[in-house]
């Protein structure tokens, strides 16, 4: 799914209107029907709804939503018109007249002197300002957004929270008594149209969007294909298209011989989690190279793994006994530590495995960050899976979210690496400059060992013959989907890395 700039949205809308063809009013009516269906299906508990409508097309979408909801008598609806009727755009004016004729809807005029009073159990729908906004809110609009944020109500944003820039990060919304920072609607849910906005993928601004739902409003596919964008949104449909079915007459050798270099004294859990995830993600054979004191732990916790035992009892110090070229894929870094001998052993391993598809995480990344010349040893399309601080060690300190995204792309392109920056909407940067943001996962996955699980999943996919690009994209999605399943069965706070491993069957 392509993420497009706000400046291109008008082109796509216009192309759809001209080539479907469909009238502008009918297109807004379609949006209202889609929003109504999504509201009934995804938020069925909310039956008291107050829709705050602006004067542009975003307001028209809100008015069309209200009109569609009038068909369901179980809703108690209020339309809050936040601008004088004579200022409404043509589409908004059309649906406003329709709403005024509906007896099941209460219409209220809102202005500076008369801000709305919200009921505690009302769902407040933000349809004030759309994706074209390029300025901070001020005056009446600012006070209105502050009033909505201070209402204590559950807020649903239509397309984008009002005050948020679609293409760049703005500071998170602030309280009403802070007169210096930008103000953005703090939505619990956002029903975004056609595709997410880039700002929703970035931490500083994306928090305002809350739980994201992407709605297909039937924009013309030819128009979207004509728009250039380096950004994608990787969905369940994308993941399912990549999955390779297992063949009836296959055997364990059909699904790869994987090598995992992981663990040190006190950090053997990282090796266990990565090994178990590797097998649960479909690997045929796995050899785990571990220090001597980790042997019993591995044989008990991951009995399926064959063990390669390091010369040292406590940590990874040698790859003399590893025939790296005999493996289909390699992963290194989970819990190995950063001492001098381990760094030397990692360098030797990278030299020996120059033709093997590999993924590197955790301490392997930190060792490389300490010895930047090791970047020259990485084969093209090696997968790196840093978190934010690890990326900064590799690519330099980031000033803000946009700088971080640029540094991520630059590292991937200049070094010809696949780099998955872990976090909400994990961003997978490819050597061709494309960045795909992941649609699965939740905050419950911010827990120890979660990254080790991801390493095991990606290793398994590389071993099964997926390309590095496919392994990174599909691995990140599988990891997030398993985390979603774990949280759905309990709660986000309850999720552990082991829970994620045990739900890797979800997709």
Describe this structure in a few short sentences:
This protein is of the alpha/beta class. The protein is built from 17 helices and 17 strands. It has a ten-stranded mixed beta sheet with strand order 8-17-16-15-14-13-12-9-10-11.
> How would you classify the helix and strand content by structural class?
alpha/beta
Number of helices: 17
Euclidean distance between termini CA atoms: 18 Å
State the name of the first-level CATH class of the largest domain: Alpha Beta
Fraction of residues in helix: 25-40%
CATH architecture of the largest domain: 3-Layer(aba) Sandwich
How can the largest sheet be summarized? 10 strands, mixed
Order of adjacent strands in the largest pleated sheet: 8-17-16-15-14-13-12-9-10-11
Q: Rounded to an integer, what's the Rg over CA atoms? A: 26 Å
**CATH fold field value of the largest domain:** UDP-N-acetylmuramoyl-L-alanine:D-glutamate ligase
- Tally of separate domains: 2
Number of strands: 17
Low-confidence stretches: 171-177
* SS strand fraction: 5-15%
User: For the record, what is the CATH homologous superfamily label of the largest domain?
Assistant: Ribokinase
Mean pLDDT: 95
Broad shape: elongated
């Amino acid at each position: 799914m392509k993420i497009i700039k706000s400046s291109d949205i008008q082109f796509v809308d216009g192309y759809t209107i001209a080539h479907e063809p469909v009238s502008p009013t009918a297109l807004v009516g379609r949006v209202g029907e889609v929003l109504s269906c999504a509201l009934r299906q995804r938020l069925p508990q909310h039956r008291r709804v107050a829709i705050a409508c602006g004067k542009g097309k975003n307001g028209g979408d809100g008015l069309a939503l209200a009109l569609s909801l009038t068909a369901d008598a179980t809703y108690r609806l209020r339309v809050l018109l936040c601008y004088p009727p004579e200022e409404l755009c043509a589409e908004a004016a059309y649906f406003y007249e329709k709403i005024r004729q509906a007896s099941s809807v209460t219409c209220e005029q809102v202005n500076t002197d008369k801000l709305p009073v919200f009921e505690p159990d009302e769902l407040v729908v933000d349809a004030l300002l759309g994706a074209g906004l390029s300025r901070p809110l001020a005056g009446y609009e600012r006070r209105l957004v502050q009033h909505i944020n201070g209402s204590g109500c559950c807020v649903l944003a239509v397309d984008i929270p009002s005050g948020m820039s679609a293409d760049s990060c703005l500071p998170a919304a602030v309280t009403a008594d802070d007169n210096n920072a930008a103000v953005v609607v703090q939505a619990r849910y956002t029903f975004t149209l056609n595709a997410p906005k880039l700002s929703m993928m970035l931490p500083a601004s994306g928090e305002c969007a809350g739980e994201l739902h992407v709605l297909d409003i039937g924009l013309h596919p030819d128009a979207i294909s004509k728009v250039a964008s380096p950004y994608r949104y990787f969905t369940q449909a994308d993941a399912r298209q990549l999955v390779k079915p297992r063949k009836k007459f296959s055997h364990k050798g059909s699904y790869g011989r994987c090598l995992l270099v992981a663990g040190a004294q006190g950090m053997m859990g990282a090796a266990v989690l990565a090994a178990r995830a590797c097998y649960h993600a479909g690997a045929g054979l796995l050899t785990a190279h571990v220090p001597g004191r980790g042997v019993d732990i591995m044989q008990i916790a991951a009995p399926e793994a064959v063990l390669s035992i390091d010369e040292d009892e406590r940590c990874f110090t040698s790859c003399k006994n590893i025939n790296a070229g005999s493996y289909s894929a390699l992963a290194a870094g989970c819990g190995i530590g950063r001492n001098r001998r381990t760094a030397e052993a990692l360098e030797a391993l990278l030299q020996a495995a120059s033709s093997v598809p590999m993924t590197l995480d955790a301490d392997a990344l930190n060792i490389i960050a300490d010895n930047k010349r090791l970047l020259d040893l990485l084969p093209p399309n090696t997968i790196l899976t840093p978190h934010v601080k690890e990326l900064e060690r590799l690519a330099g300190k980031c000033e803000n979210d946009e700088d971080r995204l640029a540094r991520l792309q630059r590292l991937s392109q200049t070094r010809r690496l696949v780099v998955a920056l872990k976090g909400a909407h994990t961003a997978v940067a490819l050597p061709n400059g494309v960045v795909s943001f992941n649609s699965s996962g939740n905050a419950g996955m911010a827990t120890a060992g979660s990254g080790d699980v991801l390493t095991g999943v990606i290793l398994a996919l590389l071993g099964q013959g997926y390309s590095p690009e496919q392994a990174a994209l599909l691995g990140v999605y599988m990891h997030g989907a398993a985390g979603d399943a774990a949280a759905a069965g309990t709660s986000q706070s309850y999720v552990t890395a082991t829970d994620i491993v045990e739900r890797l069957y979800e997709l």
